Amino acid sequence: xxxxxxxxxxxxxxxxxxxxxxxxxxxxxxxxxxxxxxxxxxxxxxxxxxxxxxxxxxxxxxxxxxxxxxxxxxxxxxxxxxxxxxxxxxxxxxxxxxxxxxxxxxxxxxxxxxxxxxxxxxxxxxxxxxxxxxxxxxxxxxxxxxxxxxxxxxxxxxxxxxxxxxxxxxxxxxxxxxxxxxxxxxxxxxxxxxxxxxxxxxxxxxxxxxxxxxxxxxxxxxxxxxxxxxxxxxxxxxxxxxxxxxxxxxxxxxxxxxxxxxxxxxxxxxxxxxxxxxxx
Length: 280
What we know:
The protein is elongated, with a radius of gyration of 24 Å. The protein contains 10 helices and 4 strands. Helix 1 (2-29) packs across helix 4. The two termini are 19 Å apart. The model has no long low-confidence stretch (mean pLDDT 85). The chain has a 4-stranded antiparallel beta sheet with strand order 2-3-1-4. The chain is an alpha+beta fold.
C-alpha cells in the first residue's frame, strides 16, 4: 500500500508539472511538439472550444477506444493521468485565463515549455506510466498491427509540428520543430539523472573494512573477488558495489582514509536491476 501511495503521488506530481508547463508556456505561444496537447493547439484555431476542452475531449475519446480495444489490461494509471491532465488544463483555464505569453522572451518561454513537460513525462516513464493521449494509440497499434510504434508516433508528431507552419507562422513552426527534437533528448536525460548511481570497482589488499562500511554504514551490498596484480603478482581483492551519489562521497572518503593505496574506479550508471534498486 505504501508503494502504491508513493506511486500515485509521483504520478500526480508528474502530471501537474506537465500541466503547468503546457498551460503557461506551450499554449500561449502556440508551441506544438506533438501529442494530444499539440493537436489541441492546432485544432483550437478552427473551433471556438478552448485548448483545455479539446484536450479533454480527445483524451476521453482515446480512453473509451482503449477500453474497447485493450480491455481490462488498459491500466488504471493511464486512465488517472489522462483525466488529471485534461481536468488540470481546464481548471487553469477557468481560474487563470491566459491571453498572452508570460514574458516577451520567446526562447525563455520555449525553454520552460520543453523543460517542465519533459520533467513530468520523465517522472511518469520512470515508474512505467504515461500521460495517455497518443500513447494509447501506440498501445492499440502494438496489439493489433506490426507497425513500428516509435516511427509511427514520431511521424504523427512531425505532422502535427508541420501543421503549425501553415496554421500559425514560420517562426512558431521552427520553434515547435526545435522543441520536438530537444524534448526527446531532455526526457532521456532527466530519466538518467533520476536513476543515476555510482558504480565502484575497488582493488585493495584488505577488503574487510571497506565491505563492513558498505554493508553496515551504507546498508548496501557488495561482491568480492580474488585477484592478482599483473606486475607485482601480489594477492589482491576486487570489490564491486553500486551506491547513490550521496553515499558515493562517503564511500570514496572512507576508502581514501582506510586504504590510501587502494585503486578505485568510479563510473556513472542509470540502469541497475536487482534487489535494492528496481525490478523488471
